[in-house]
UniProtKB/TrEMBL annotation:
Gene3D superfamilies per record: Chorismate lyase-like (3.40.1410.10)
Name of this protein: Uncharacterized protein
């Protein structure tokens, strides 16, 4: 995987003006600083990881979507339940060929984070960590995270295999942590 090309292909699903990122750099998982390393360098769902780290369930807020017959893209925020505190930004590109109609409908309904839907429906899945990214927030991401433009944080690119097929491509960026 060329991490920066994959990042660009996901960002192109939802072009932002002003830009989402000021910069992005592919970095080694082994050199990623804590607590980002524990939050990002693993093969688990970010929904569960964010809930454990922030000691709160999370809610999904869909900012934009891009559906067609077989694929569904969405740009989201994960927020601590019952608050406006954003804990993660994400872009998802989902190929619905590899899941049941019930799973597809629950994802399209946009009420539950993707990871929680797959877990609840017991979809056979494996998460393949593609790359860790060190990013600087552009104006759009800084607004979502309520931080200064240029603030550094970390994210990841990953693929979720559903029923042994590459069904979901993900960009997941953690809110800046102290």
């Amino acid at each position: 995987m060329n991490a920066l090309k994959e990042l660009q292909s996901l960002l192109e699903l939802f072009p932002d003006n002003p830009p989402l990122l000021e910069s992005a750099e592919h970095v080694a998982g082994s050199t990623t600083p804590e607590p980002y390393k524990s939050m990002l360098v693993h093969d688990h769902h970010m929904t569960v990881t964010m809930e454990n780290y922030h000691k709160s369930t999370v809610e999904v807020q869909v900012l934009d979507r891009n559906p067609d017959e077989f694929n569904y893209g969405r740009k989201i925020l994960l927020l601590k339940e019952g608050t406006d505190e954003v804990v993660q930004f994400g872009i998802v590109r989902f190929n619905f060929e590899y899941v049941t109609d019930d799973v597809k409908q629950e994802i399209i309904d946009e009420n539950i984070p993707l990871g929680r839907v797959l877990i609840t429906h017991n979809v056979l899945r494996h998460i393949d960590l593609g790359a860790i990214l060190k990013v600087k927030c552009g104006p759009t991401l800084a607004k979502h995270f309520n931080c200064e433009v240029g603030t550094e944080t970390y994210g990841r690119l990953a693929t979720i295999f559903c029923n042994n097929r590459p069904a979901v491509d993900l960009l997941e960026i953690s809110s800046p942590l102290s």
